[in-house]
# Entry
Amino acid sequence: MTTKLLSEDQRDCLQEIANVAMGQSADRLARLLDVFVVLSIPTVGILTPSDIAMTLQSLQSDDDSTNSLTGVCQGFIGGGIAGEALLIFNGTNYQDLAELLRYQHNRDIQNELLMDTTNVLGGACLHSLARQLDTQFSLGPPTLLGGSSDPTSNLQKRKVRWSEALVIEINYSIEHHRVNCDLLLVISENCIDGLLEKLDYLLE
# Structure
């Protein structure tokens, strides 16, 4: 990882914005499911596609081969900023998630569970991020990553048109339930300057 494009002030500002967005999205999920959501400190950095694939691989528990990574990708654009939100589920017990969402769990609704959680967490986080940056994001339709293969392989096979991206990583887990996911907000390099301009305006 390299952070050469980010000054210390810009990094701190973006991390604080991400922290607020994370808190608001977690609060929405907590109220919806009547649970306590455990949060981590958001991380901010510049990553290559290979770095992102390695990050996803690191999320897979070595001692839990029965729970592979699954994920949902959703594009966003607005105010000169465009990117993708990747919500990656790791070590999640979908029976737990189904009960929290008041679904009768079966294999056929797993994808629906992932989509619904993405709509709550990803949507709330992105809209909060946009408000703080004084802009609006249009969100694309969420699409499943993986299928017969895991998200890491899926991402490695995708044709990306950037060599590095600004990535904000946020972890969510639900207390007393085996539900854990990481939200990666990936902003491609041709949009980083636009984001930095907004951060500089906020810092003035």
Q: What stands out?
A: The beta strands are 37-39, 43-47, 70-78, 81-89, 138-139, 143-145, 165-174, 180-188. The two ends are 28 Å apart (CA to CA).
